[in-house]
Amino acid sequence: MHRHWTGGLVFTALIPATAGAGCDSLDSLRWLLGDWVADGSKSSFHESWRELGPEDWQGTGIERLKADGAIDGSEDLRLVEMDGGVFYVSKVRHNELPVAFRLTSCADGAFAFENAAHAFPRRLEYRHGGGDVLSVRVSDGGENGFMLEFRRAAAPATPAVLAAEDARFAAMIAADAPAMERWLAADLVYAHSTGLVQDRPQLMATIADGRTRYVAITPAEREVVALGPVAAFVRGRGRFQVAAGETPIDMQARYLAVYVLRDGRWQLRAWQSMQIP
Questions:
Q1: By C-alpha distance, which of 271, 276, 275, 274 is closest to 203?
Q2: Are residues 224 and 250 both part of a single domain?
C-alpha cells in the first residue's frame, strides 16, 4: 500500500478511552472529529472528519508534497457502525475496491484496527500522546512498519477566506485578468444562476470581452465552514448587478462557494448560485 494511504488511517483510533464506551460504538472515537495535520520528511498529511449521523462519519485525507505543494495522494474515508462493530473504510484511486479495518481493542488510551487479510498495513495501533498530539504505529502486525504523529489543526480563519472572496469580487468587477488568475483556481468549475457552467478560461474570457460585466456585488450574509486546513466553503447571499451584453440584471441570489488554499492564498475552486425570486 502506498504510504500516503496510511495518512488516512492514523486518526481512526487515537482517542482516549471513554468511560462506558465500548469498541462497538463511534462514541469512543468522538475526539477524532475535526481537522488534523502530520508533518513527514517530504510530505504533510491532512485529515478531516465530519459526523453524518450517529453511526456514520465521513472523512477525507490528502498528502501534499513539501517541495511544491502538489497533491501526491488523496482518499475518501468512512467510519461506520455495523454488525456489532466499528469499521474504518478507505478508498484510494489506485485500489479498485475500498479496504476495511475493524476496531479490535480500545483500552487504556490505546486503540487498534486490524485486517489480517490485507497485505499492508494489517494492524494500526494508536495512542493519545497528551493534549492535541496523537501517535500511531502502522505495521504488518510484526516488526515492519512506521510511526507518525499528528496535531489538531486550526480551522481556516474566517477573515482570510472572506478577504479572498472580496478580492475576487473586486477583480471580476474590474475585469482585471491578472487578479482573476490570482483568486480563481486553475481547475475552477463556475455554475451561473442561469445554469451555464464555465471553467476558468471561459469565465475570464466572458468577462474580458464584455459579454458579462459585473457592475457591483454586495454580500448581505456569509458563513464560512471549514473542510480542513486547506479547504473551506462559504454559504452566502447577496445582490449581484450584472450586464449581460446590453441587458442589465439586478438580482438577489444565494450561493455556495468552495475555496482551496494554494500558494498561500484562498482560491475559488467551485461556485454555484441561485436567483432568489
A1: 271
A2: yes
